[in-house]
Input
Amino acid sequence: MKIYPVIMAGGSGTRFWPLSRRNRPKQFLALAGDAPLLAATVSRLPPLSRPRDTFVVCGPKHAAAARRMVAQLPKENFIVEPCARNTAPCVGLAAIHVAAKDPRGVIAMLPADHHIGRPPAFRDALAAAAQLAEAGSIATIGIRPSRPETGYGYLKLGPRLAARAKGKKRLVAHKVERFVEKPDVVTAARYLADGSYLWNSGIFVFRADVILDEIRRAMPVLGEQLEAIRRTLGTPNYARTLKRVFPDCPSISIDYGVMEKSQRIAVVPAEFGWSDVGSFAALSDVRVTDDLGNVAEGDALVIDGRNNVVLAGKDRPIALIGLDDVIVVDSGDALLVCRRDRAQDVRKAVEELGRRGREELL
Output
């Protein structure tokens, strides 16, 4: 079975300001190792799939940088969106490109900005999901929760199915009973104790023809727009049609627009050291910490403090004394200081800088 990975690299990563900027979004940063997240996403795929079958979807501002970062991919495998319209149009656009090569090709939609601690286990789970997809299901990978996390969506497990990754150990799969919104901490603790809920990883695997059928059923307007673009693939009219049609596509996630309405969803439960690296607070899950849970990198010093994230620049040291659960990030031209439990609110600083016209910091 041939798998066509499609890596969604169009996000802005405003929760990682001041490290992330418009021209250097989160997926271009080395947040969880030595390699940028996008490059790490591509590098963990072989031997399950080949670079020539791997696609990247990104915006026009980031296309050149993405091509340089993952130069092993053919130039024609970079799908450039004229503007950001969330993941449903992104998935549909990728699907018509893959379908032009292989109408029943199995697509693995992968976020560009996640961390995977155990790539072999990830490939096993992806292979099992691909088997389900080849048979006509829309498969997702659900992460077994390790804590009552409130920052993730959840999946409720339905009846059990069986799946086998070719040449690997047998893996279990389930129907998805329903998608669940991000819970409060009490509800998340109940989900953890229940045992029948998984974190929604945002990884989906499906045949190109199946997802296009589901889009036409659940989102007929988007289906018509994608068909208008599809008819021009490989012609001189493609770029003009894409620029005209795509900005009018509904801006909605594939989860809300299609997956929550579909009766074909199956899930492979898995554990492979997954993190969505959603904010600076998540860095303690993917970077080295000291005995008190501190991430201190660059010329950073933490004294009598716990569970801090301190990222110092090259030109000046940062010393943190007697503080717990604080985030300090120095990018050279800007300094971020916030409580760890407010890490999700870093985007508010970006919004406020935009209102103040501080374009040089965005």
In short: The longest strand covers residues 154-164. Residues 280-361 form one domain. The CA atoms of residues 115 and 275 lie 5 Å apart.
